Amino acid sequence: MIHCIGQSSALTAAAAMEEETVTGAQIIVKALVDQQVEYMFGIVGIPIIEVAVAAQVAGIKYVGMRNEQAACYAASAIGYLTGRPGACLVVSGPGLINALSGMANANENCWPVLVIGGSSDRNQETLGAFQEFPQVEACRLYSKFSARPSSLEAIPHVIEKAVRCSLYGRPGASYVDIPGDFVNAEVKSSQVRYSECCLPPPISMADPAMVSHATSILMNARRPLLIVGKGAAYSRAEQSIRRLVEQTGLPFLPTPMGKGVVPDNHPLCVSAARSSALRNADVIVLLGARLNWMLHFGLPPRYQPDVKIIQVDICAEELGNSVKPAVCLLGDVDAVTKQILGPLVQFSWKFPSSSDWWGSLRGKIKANVESSKALASETSLPMTYYTVFHHIKELLPKDCIIVSEGANTMDIGRTVLQNHHPRHRLDAGTFGTMGVGLGFAIAAALVAQGQNPRQRVVAVEGDSAFGFSGMEAETLCRYNLPVLIIVVNNNGIYNGVNETSWKEMMMLGEPAKVAPPVCLTPNAHYEQVMAAFGGKGHFVQTPEELRVALKAGLAEEKVPTLINVMIDPQSDRKQQDFPWLTRSNM
């Protein structure tokens, strides 16, 4: 009898184990953990609250944001900084639509990101369900992969494929749609097959014959130039590219987010002679950079009509997109750079530093540096952009991550503020997106917190740009992220007016009829926004006040700081390489 009772208990225990169940939320999170997703950003609500809770229980870092756009920007920045996609968790309908900006931006920047959106219950589709929207179809325009699992059991496979698609080939956005009735639904654990973590992206190399042809062209160039793009930064190609630069003596020009792959203060960097270098080069090697608007499409008069382009890119469709290359090298930037370097080292080839080309570039660099110094040395008040950036440059740590957005603020900032390490500059990027700043800064601060807690993240914002995502100041305070935000405040978009002129205009009629469209409220106290949530705020009008505030902000290790820097509303930049920016919505 005792034997029978013991046997019965064992059978009961075995049956209980067989009947153990898991919810859809738990399956989603387990699949994310298996794919090495470490960070999740979002705004919770029906029907995805339980997913966020399960994520935290499983050890994923969840950051609740104030807008889905900023959440998606943050998740995509994680993908760029770490090489693994961040997750963005959003509610159905409007929540998902808000995240589309971040998905489009990630696709244009070629950064991996995974968006998970709740959607209407399946039995309510076409009936006018709460926030019902064709989400899978909509996301196909903004992503590389968009799908809805057919069942709870299918969730791990779909998430593995979404992560894999976001990483393989040209990185980008993936979307997974989760019906509301999936989240709390249960299934036997034994029925769910989880997918192992996808393998790292395959590293492809260029055709050796094409590499040989490319090196032959390069060795015969009279005015060669390397252009280093953010694709090189994402590829972690900094060591191979620096070796290529230093062993060959070639001048190099980084794109805005290619800055730091080789330090900006390197003697072979020709950023200060950008226009001249592009206009006069006879052979250009594109390393993870695209001939889009940022590089003037590779066309005259910005380039020589007969310039020979050696294009290195991971995406076959990008090769020859604007200008027919002399040589196409399809493959991973790091791997192909090593291939190019091989023959050059073998022949001990080095471009002569005494060449006319280097003489011309150095002359232009010297003239432009002197011009910038003159602008920075102005002592008039209100301050100018160049005065402000001069003092910021002097005090910023060399290893800080710089986030930048705005029109004049970003464009002038990229020429003055230097980057000494790869992936240490995040800005509006290929899509020219305003509003990315605080989301990027939050992501960068979280990564720094995990890898190098003393590393500083500094967001340099135009006043207009700050307005797009300014409420994320509360997010920074809530998570104790000691980001330093510097708002360069000119009272407007491109240009504003001073307080006296504004009052005079208001006497002429209603603001909607008389206020110039580019104007914002004069002397707006953005620093009070940060102070309202428990951060530190500084309002500065002179170089002395700026330096005091910068030192205090950089020393702060517990809470974020916002420095509101007033400049001349009519302060402008010197002649730019991007004249069409004055016609854009930035």
Distance between the termini: 83 Å
Mean pLDDT: 94
Using the alpha-carbon principal axes, give the shape. globular
Estimated share of beta-strand residues = 15-25%
- The oligomeric status of these chains comes to single chain
Number of helices: 23
Low-confidence stretches: 1-5, 576-586
Assign the structural class, choosing from mainly alpha, mainly beta, alpha/beta, alpha+beta, or little secondary structure: alpha/beta
Strand order, biggest sheet? 3-2-4-5-7-6
- The beta-strand count equals 19
| Rg over alpha carbons | 26 Å
Q: Which range best describes the helical content: under 10%, 10-25%, 25-40%, 40-55%, 55-70% or over 70%? A: 40-55%
Biggest β-sheet strands, sense, barrel: 6 strands, parallel
Question: What's a concise summary of this model?
Answer:
Helix content is 41%, strand content 15%. It starts with a helix and ends in a 20-residue tail after the last strand. Mean pLDDT is 94; it is low at 1-5 and 576-586.
Report on the architecture of this protein.
The protein is of the alpha/beta class. The strands form four sheets. A six-stranded parallel β-sheet has the order 3-2-4-5-7-6, sandwiched between helices. A six-stranded parallel β-sheet has the order 15-14-16-17-19-18, sandwiched between helices. A five-stranded parallel β-sheet has the order 10-9-11-12-13, with helices on both faces. Helix 2 (24-34) runs parallel beside helix 7, helix 14 (356-376) crosses helix 15 (385-395) and helix 15 packs across helix 16 (408-416). It is globular. The model is unreliable at 1-5 and 576-586 (pLDDT under 50).
